[in-house]
């Protein structure tokens, strides 16, 4: 895996997303997102056929923090973002279930 992807503990992830230049992306489904997300997170469903087009809405020169339910889908999304050349990608280890 690319060294641009870092999996972080909830505490480290919280510190990273406190930086307003970091783009926060929830890669779960709209239904999961509606049940609650992290404040200011953008919804980009990684399982959607439009995911690759959604990525183009992000600023590719800024870091991105991604999360999902348990950390599996977000790790996949992080890999896709790394392939697109984002400078730094942060993945929430254990996903949103680990967040509280």
From TrEMBL:
Pfam families: Rhodanese (PF00581)
SUPFAM superfamilies according to UniProt: Rhodanese/Cell cycle control phosphatase (SSF52821)
SMART domains in the cross-refs: RHOD (SM00450)
Residues spanning the membrane: none
Residue ranges constituting the Rhodanese domain according to the UniProt record: 18-100
Name of protein: UPF0176 protein
Source organism phylogeny: Bacteria, Pseudomonadati, Bacteroidota, Bacteroidia, Bacteroidales
């Amino acid at each position: 895996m690319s060294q641009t992807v870092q999996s972080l503990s909830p505490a480290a992830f919280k510190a990273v997303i406190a930086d307003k230049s970091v783009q926060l992306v929830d890669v779960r489904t709209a239904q999961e997102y509606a049940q609650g997300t992290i404040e200011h997170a953008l919804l980009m469903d990684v399982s959607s056929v439009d995911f690759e087009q959604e990525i183009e809405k992000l600023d590719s020169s800024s870091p991105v923090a991604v999360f999902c339910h348990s950390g599996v889908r977000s790790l996949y999304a992080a890999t896709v973002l790394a392939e697109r050349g984002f400078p730094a990608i942060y993945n929430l280890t254990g996903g949103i279930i680990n967040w509280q």
